[in-house]
UniProtKB/TrEMBL annotation:
Protein name: Anti-sigma F factor
SUPFAM superfamilies: ATPase domain of HSP90 chaperone/DNA topoisomerase II/histidine kinase (SSF55874)
InterPro entries named in the record: Anti-sigma-factor_SerPK, Anti-sigma_F, HATPase_C_sf, HATPase_dom
This protein's UniProt keywords: ATP-binding, Kinase, Nucleotide-binding, Serine/threonine-protein kinase, Sporulation, Transferase
Keyword Transferase: yes
Pfam families xrefs: HATPase_c_2
Known catalytic reactions: L-seryl-[protein] + ATP = O-phospho-L-seryl-[protein] + ADP + H(+); L-threonyl-[protein] + ATP = O-phospho-L-threonyl-[protein] + ADP + H(+)
EC number: 2.7.11.1
GO molecular function terms noted in the UniProt entry: ATP binding; protein serine/threonine kinase activity; sigma factor antagonist activity
């Protein structure tokens, strides 16, 4: 059973990445996370949102990014959803140091960071329809 849930949508503007971090921080504060746990979640959400903006929508500001988060017990599940161009080969883009945008000097570490800072990471995508990143973290 869910204890609490939120859903927010915002434009695919780079300045909204900070909004996403603050919104998720405020939501998970009820779990009384440590400073490190809070930083981990904020960083993972930041990476997912940035991927949506840069790769999903290719920096076009007319896209919508949706974040859904739910708390059950001491666990949070966060979904970052975009309706952008999608990913052809999810396995390939999840490889450390892989980037589809070397022209933007991207590090190719976004999914690696998400996977490292969260307990679970699942990525589903369909070309032309968008990408959903689902992450979870359990707090002590």
């Amino acid at each position: 059973m869910l204890d609490n849930k939120i859903s927010i949508e915002f434009q695919s503007l780079s300045q909204n990445e900070g909004f996403a971090r603050v919104a998720i921080s405020a939501f998970i504060a009820q779990l009384d996370p440590t400073i490190d746990e809070m930083a981990d979640v904020k960083t993972a959400v930041s990476e997912a949102v940035t991927n949506s903006i840069i790769h999903g929508y290719e920096n076009k500001k007319d896209g919508i990014i949706r974040i859904e988060a739910c708390i059950s017990g001491n666990n949070v599940i966060i979904k970052v959803i975009d309706y952008g161009k999608g990913i052809i080969d999810v396995e390939k883009v999840m490889e450390p140091l892989y980037t589809s945008r070397p022209d933007l000097e991207r590090s190719g570490m976004g999914f690696t960071v998400m996977d490292t800072f969260m307990d679970t990471l699942q990525v589903t995508s369909e070309e032309g329809k968008g990408t959903t990143v689902i992450m979870s973290k359990k707090f002590n």
